[in-house]
Amino acid sequence: MNCFKYPLFMPMLDLDELEQLDQNVGLFSVNRFNWAQLKRSDYLKQSSQPELKDAVREQLKLLTGYECDGKILMLGQLRYLGVYFSPINCFYCYSSSGQLMYVLAEVSNTPWLKTHYYAVPCQQKDVRQPKAFHVSPFMELNMDYQWRIKTPHQKLLLHIENHDRQGKIFDATLAMIQNPLNSRTLFGVLLKTPIITISIMVKIYWQALKLWVKKVPYVPYTTHSGAKNVE
């Protein structure tokens, strides 16, 4: 058994408020260099839509047929001092009446630099979907994901399990507490972890090394139709 727990911060941005955040939050900018930068080309690279919200709506409709007519919140990593890395970005897609309808998960794998999208309906408590994308070199492709997503308010919970024929073999939980995004709070977290993208990458490789030392079988990368090359 291999268990670990790390502190983490992730911004959650309303994609309708990017211009306002760009103007009002120090150390943050959109499509221009800053300590924390949202660069449009880091997300949904296959889309020709210039606006990130439109690209999310387009991808969600492609996967589900649903046309999102409400707000979209992005929970994910930014560029920090020009360095971008994010294993998963989650786009919380709401209806015009304020109901959370879907989470569009943009999943990237390391070190193959490919990405895949899962559209998770949020009107069910637990959603089970077949795994369609090779992520970890220590887990087979032939298994299911089970998602548990709660509508974020003061707290956020995102729970994912991997199930094979024998049952659950892996789970990951993201549990977060809301803090306001302003110049003061952003400076505070950046002061503690100046480039969190590098920190995340180091921790991923450290856990992989521990599994390798434990002689967990290596599963080579398998190309399949679900993967998108983003190089």
From TrEMBL:
* Annotated source species: Echinimonas agarilytica
Q: Which domain of life is it from?
A: Bacteria
Question: Known InterPro entries for this protein?
Answer: DUF1365
Pfam families named in the record: DUF1365
Protein name according to UniProt: DUF1365 domain-containing protein
